[in-house]
Amino acid sequence: MTSAPVAGALPAAVVRDRRRAKRKAAWRRRGLVLLLMSPWLVGFTVFFAYPLVMSAYLSFTHYDLLSAPKWVGTANYRYLFEQDQQVWPAVKNTLWLMVVFVPAQVLCAFGLATMLTRARYGAGVFRTIFYLPALAPTVAATLGFVYLLNPGTGPVNVVLEHLGIPTPLWFDSPQWAKPSLVLLGLWGIGTMMIIFLAALIDVPRHLYESASLDGANAWQRMRWVTLPSISPVILFAVVIGVIDSLQYFTQAYVAAAIASGQAASEGPTSAGYPEDSTLFYPVLLYLQAFSYFNMGYASAMTMLLLVVALTVTVLILRSSRLWVFYAGARR
Amino acid sequence: MRRLTLALAVLGALLLAVFGANARGGQDARAAKEPVTISFWVPFTARELGVINSALAGFHKKYPWITVKSTGNTNPTKLTAAIRGGNAPDAVALFETDTLGAFCSSGAWLDLSSHIKSDKLNMNIFPKTIQNYTAYENKRCALPLLADAYGFYYNKAMLAKAGLKGPPKTLAQLSAYAKRLTVKNADGSIKVLGFNPLMNWYQNSPVHFGPITGATWMKDGKSNLAGDPNWAALLRWQKSLVDWFGYENLIKWQAKAGDEWTSSNAFESGKLAMNLDGEWRTAFVKADAPNISYGTAPHPVSKPSLYGSGFVIGSIMGIPKGSDHEDEAWLLLKYLSTDSKAVTGLSLGLRNVPSTLPTLRNPVLRKDPQFKVFLDIFANPKSSTQPVLKIGAQNQTLFSTFISKWQAGHVASKDLHAGLANVDKQIDAAIGQSGQVP
Amino acid sequence: MTTVEAAAAEARTLERRKPPARYRRRQFLIAVADHSLLIAVSLMFLAPFAFIALTSLMTNQQALSPRLWPEPFQWGNYVDVFRTAPLWRYALNTMLYAGLATVGVLVSSIPVAYALSRLRWRGRDTVFVLVLVALILPFQVTVIPVYVLFAKLHLVGSLWPLILPNFLGDAFSIFLLRQFFLTIPEEYADAARVDGCGEIRILCTVFLRLAKPAIAAVALFEFLFCFNDFFGPLLYTSENADNWTLSLGLAQFRTIYQVEWNLTMAATLILMAPVILLFFLAQRAFVEGVTLTGVKG
Hints:
The complex is a heterotrimer.
Chain A: H1 12-58, E1 61-62, E2 70-71, H2 75-83, H3 87-117, H4 123-135, H5 138-148, H6 155-162, H7 174-187, H8 190-202, H9 205-213, H10 218-229, H11 231-246, H12 250-260, H13 281-291, H14 295-323
Antiparallel strand pairs in A: 1-2
Helix pairs in contact in A: 1-14, 2-14, 3-7, 3-8, 3-11, 3-13, 4-8, 5-12, 11-14, 13-14
Chain B: H1 2-25, E1 36-41, H2 46-62, E2 66-71, H3 76-85, E3 91-94, H4 100-106, H5 113-118, H6 128-133, E4 135-136, E5 139-140, E6 143-155, H7 156-161, H8 171-181, E7 183-184, E8 190-195, H9 206-213, E9 218-219, E10 222-223, H10 229-245, H11 247-255, E11 272-278, H12 281-288, E12 294-297, E13 312-318, H13 326-338, H14 340-350, H15 357-360, H16 369-379, H17 394-407, H18 416-434
Parallel strand pairs in B: 1-2, 1-3, 8-11
Antiparallel strand pairs in B: 3-13, 4-5, 6-11, 6-12, 6-13, 7-8, 9-10
Chain C: H1 3-14, H2 21-56, H3 60-63, H4 76-84, H5 87-118, H6 124-136, H7 140-152, H8 160-163, H9 171-182, H10 186-194, H11 199-210, H12 212-228, H13 231-237, H14 246-256, H15 261-281, H16 283-296
Helix pairs in contact in C: 2-15, 4-15, 5-9, 5-12, 6-9, 9-12, 10-11, 12-16, 14-15
């Protein structure tokens, strides 16, 4: 590194050269950064910034991709908030996912991970078994579950009938369609479970020991040692879960198409089957944008989704200050 | 001397251009032309695609310089994506007319009026219903590719076993027959169903059932579901039958019913005694379940004056925007919709109703008694089709969603009118939002 | 030994002193209860696989009936599946998509992650926040204009709209790699700098080697994501059956190919098999990768 020149010790030419060299180095570094970042710069602009601005613009137009967008002012938003009767069910369904499915996921992942830590023998085998379903491609798992939960001939109902338990209609019933999707989602909880498992193992043992010495029982140990220690991971799981529920599409779309058994299986006739119970916001958005090609209106729906996503994420992150405890280095 | 030769050459070229152009501009000109290949997307698959291909071979014989490359299994979603993506074929056919409004109004399908005029094609060669569903607000963007009529299929053996004579003709009779023909398992679940009153299954949909009570969708450009009492009558009849079977029992039976388009089709495999279906089912039964003893008839109706009519629709063909070979595509469309030999051949092969009035009267097609029924349904003046709207079939989807709540018992009987009025409101809002001028 | 088993072993050694018999009995009963619960839950997790497998071996009539056990076993179903639907073509498309996308993601995200973690420059933290924002927002927010863009470029109907964006950086991969690069001590880079390496050579020689687990994880995740992707192929290739991927092909299976439930279940298993196989071959990479996301996330 260059040291501060002693007064009068260095000739002006050397100082000038050094400064020029420093500037050149700085430019070289900027060039390097630019080179390294160039893919992201282009990608971000073309595939994120520009579409975001474009979506906002399109939301004020009527656009079906064949002719130029036609400006209609706030007509799309008026239709969205006042007239489209499919929007409120879609919003409710997505909110249901956030409120029911996300906690269920976190609880299930945490529960399974805890069970794994208590396994003395064959923990690796059990871990593999719990993780395998998460590997199944989404479409495959959905198809499998729709078949398994077939109200007439599916194995689940066959077994339930043998046991004399009343059999719900699963994917064919508006009350049970979403819980069926939750079951499908919980079956694939493996990834989140592994993350929780790693976090649980990382909890310092001495904390548990001192807690036991202080007379804490199992519940208290969990409440005061385990949960705070893994709270960053819980936050991570909640944020991921919420983001996923705001984007939830494939399982709902495929399950509705297959369960409805209609001739034109996918597409507007079956989305949301039965009775709009699986019509989640992203599904409705897809219909409006790519089946009806109401791209202007769909862009308005997108803007609403954007606002909700930002709000919810910020709320969760803000609230995390209250309950998330970062051991060691502060973020 | 050189200048003379040059002048002669130019004159010769001019003459050639003038007369050559005349030859090219002629209608069914057989003059030497550039061989051209056009792409034709059709919704057919497997066996039916083979039938289309033989018709295309006939077209090639008539216009030897045009080769048609067909691609099967297309549907409106695919076509819409292709047109919007700039990859549209030269000509296309679709099973349903749902997207015609959107395609025609936006220019996605070209207006054929100029071709019709220059070829002097008389549209009255087609029945009125066909003329109705191939145009949107006076712009004719499609020609028919055969047509479909919906009627009633009944298993003769099962009816005979139950001691019932002939097909039911009224809705009351239909209900009675349905109850008599249902066979239950030991545990109370349905083994053989007489008739499935649930909508949104196989071909059961409000648009197909509307004509049996004479219900109409639109009036003066607005949705008329609440205004037309026939819809309420249809829904109440349907619900009473659903309640008799038990909604959950029907759902469970449906879940076992098998795929509509395969040999485990419920009617073909003997799980269903009577069914509403289109005329093409005769071909499927012949191929999949030839031993079944069945009969066809017009669908039972609410009023005797309506008997003999039904829902009619047809496949349509059009030329998408961006087609590179518009003239050749037009020749193909004209051939497949009006050439008697082609239409008859297609009708026999696909077991669809022919599109032109002269071919409807062809005795060759009327030989099969089960198929003849559908020809008569198609020709019946009371038969009706669905309105061509810019929102396509969205009105049907919105109505179907309401019906799925209604038939599950989630809408009280006294709220039916209010519910229908609400669906009207949704449909009108959607039409308004789409920019269609009523 | 895995970390779980290591922890369990450590627990065992701590109790080497023989505790009183009553205590030992209680511990034994607790262990039995724990393991019974684990076994029960494992059976529930494995049951769907078992039923799917059984159904795939039935005839179509049996698949539609309440029977649970196929009779006879129709091993031929697996052959029929390939005859009925062009699964090989779908598999090829899927491999093309997943393979190229993974390469693209690695090539474009590693330099970006390096620049975000090891170099200091103005605006670095803002850019990182932008990366996070891109990660958090639902993808539907940008999907329409991107589709319009690809439509105008006449690329709709092919797999290119799915592959190309990955060559311009992927937010998740950048995030993961950056977090990992942050944990590499500066000494390695300093040593290389002393030897006269330029930054890019440092990146290539030092970091690539040190970050192999993270890179493997990123590659694995990207590959899996593309393999499982349904929305992307649905949106961009549904009109052109030649370009369908396995996920899309399977979803269309029932109606297009007039296939029955038994064949559909066979196809489902065929689709699940390669991923599960990949897992068993690369178990450590999987688990480490998943752990990386969570712990560093």
